[in-house]
Known about the structure:
Chain A has helices at residues 3-19, 31-39, 68-80, 94-99, 114-119, 161-165, 180-188, 199-208, 237-252, 255-268, 283-320, 325-339, 343-357, 362-387, 391-399, 404-434, 446-457, 462-489; strands at residues 41-46, 55-59, 62-66, 83-88, 105-106, 121-122, 127-128, 131-136, 153-157, 173-177, 194-198, 212-216, 227-228, 231-232. Chain A is α/β, with parallel strands linked by helices. In chain A, helix 11 (283-320) packs across helix 14 and helix 14 crosses helix 16. By secondary structure, chain B is α/β, with parallel strands linked by helices. Chain B is 39% helix and 25% strand. Chain B has a six-stranded mixed beta sheet with strand order 6-7-8-3-9-10, sandwiched between helices. The two termini of chain B are 32 Å apart. The interface between A and B is medium-sized, with 21 and 30 residues.
Amino acid sequence: xxxxxxxxxxxxxxxxxxxxxxxxxxxxxxxxxxxxxxxxxxxxxxxxxxxxxxxxxxxxxxxxxxxxxxxxxxxxxxxxxxxxxxxxxxxxxxxxxxxxxxxxxxxxxxxxxxxxxxxxxxxxxxxxxxxxxxxxxxxxxxxxxxxxxxxxxxxxxxxxxxxxxxxxxxxxxxxxxxxxxxxxxxxxxxxxxxxxxxxxxxxxxxxxxxxxxxxxxxxxxxxxxxxxxxxxxxxxxxxxxxxxxxxxxxxxxxxxxxxxxxxxxxxxxxxxxxxxxxxxxxxxxxxxxxxxxxxxxxxxxxxxxxxxxxxxxxxxxxxxxxxxxxxxxxxxxxxxxxxxxxxxxxxxxxxxxxxxxxxxxxxxxxxxxxxxxxxxxxxxxxxxxxxxxxxxxxxxxxxxxxxxxxxxxxxxxxxxxxxxxxxxxxxxxxxxxxxxxxxxxxxxxxxxxxxxxxxxxxxxxxxxxxxxxxxxxxxxxxxxxxxxxxxxxxxx
Amino acid sequence: xxxxxxxxxxxxxxxxxxxxxxxxxxxxxxxxxxxxxxxxxxxxxxxxxxxxxxxxxxxxxxxxxxxxxxxxxxxxxxxxxxxxxxxxxxxxxxxxxxxxxxxxxxxxxxxxxxxxxxxxxxxxxxxxxxxxxxxxxxxxxxxxxxxxxxxxxxxxxxxxxxxxxxxxxxxxxxxxxxxxxxxxxxxxxxxxxxxxxxxxxxxxxxxxxxxxxxxxxxxxxxxxxxxxxxxxxxxxxxxxx
Lengths: 492, 241
């Protein structure tokens, strides 16, 4: 097999994987439980911006997900005799992640609605809950019932039970967002009149924010709609039964109360010291670790992706100049396809589609997606760079007896690289900003951490501002650095 | 050394060379003159296959170049040095690197040896003090002399010059022509496309006058310049002399 054929196949594989249909894996028997016990790991999916069910707190100096659901999951893992692994994903991506086998089960204060039951199975309800309405404290006299909200601007979380409940309000002007914190921010900045939220969650927020007021909504609900349950893939009865056993035990021993109380302790403050006393600190000193971790991961993802992207891009650029029409067409199709689709969908597609076949960690999926995307753009940069080198250069090289490859490698490419250096730098800066998209699959980069800080600090705007500042410092200093090296590289 | 049989070259419908037959002997200095658009540069570029002939044959040292595989062609090109009107030096390399890169990468000469040779050749063209200079800091005349040195470093059997002084300021033409004269005196086989009639008169063994894709007339310089036979040759010489 010649090199070019090998390259061609690599590109082909990358392409084909982009077109694979979402295959449904055939029905499973009782082996689901067996498989988890064999692997020794139970992977749960959750959306940790939802106190007191799941949120982040610093425990013994270490940052981790806590909350009622997490404690329940720990108990289940214990009962099964396996380790617990937590994947933090946006709420509306949880069920896709479950079906794509990225996680074994979803526990996220999720209500087992009839719509959801069509695609997944649920455990027994482990927590009966109620639905609240959140308004601004100053409006508490104006809005005090469902009826008073007729025709008003109502916020709900995307693909949530609350979205359906909103139909019980007459003529609502609905705003549907993924992140609850964004809804609350919209409420506080007068873009919404009320937000429908799960009861305990609403009370947690109201208790921590004097600008907010909440009351029980009194929505009409089916029995099913009044509680939270754990979601599983269809036909994994063995696992559901085992989990139900644990849930029964939790109910018999009244553990839910304990879990809620424990979560409440974590919720009241972001950090508890050794004596159990609150540590009162400024915003930055309390949360700098989140931002630091996020920044490091953002830089890591960007650097690795641009590096892989450069190799892929150079390869694609040469393929696009190939004499072989087929190779050329495939490379061109790849570039056009990637440039013609949003990176967000590429990231989600690679993460969820890969989950059907093997367990690809979210970080790896994110880096692959960003690299594949960047490769297409860098291909075009490299191509323009090669085109910018005077034709006489190749003629001179060839007249000295150099082969096509030698003249490309020693003469054309080094000059092209110098010409495209600024454009490559721009691509790096673009990737630093755009890699934030991998937060949708739960990769803990800067945007993701910003979301986390917003949920645990009960602050809507300040975390956004800090993260904006960090992005600017990153991109601005990188620009300066690139300019410096650009100056050093020019001989002419 | 080089035999050209029925060479034709067209760009699209435009026929630039029509049936050229020539033979260049070892040690001979051949100067090709003619009005612009007469096909003389294309003729030269066909000799080392930078332009692929549309028809006909080029035979170099007994091997037909037309129909050779890339790899074999690369081998033979090493023996045919070429100097361009626009110099085409590699801007990202110093004068010495320009001269040594082909011996090192193509012939596999050890770096130290290539550098020794390269320095000697640069001295020979009068640029001993410019070995470490980048092309952008050299004058046109100096750049063209580096380009000649670069071609010479491959130890070619023949040197092809494509209007080597046309892009130069007048005061720099002399230094390049001097290097070329020295080269001719040392016995190098040369094919030179040029408008420098003085050089043709003084150095050429044979002058070829081309017009409209044909060789109109050729002979020793005295004959061509003092008793041109063809009307077109007379017209051309009347304008340039």
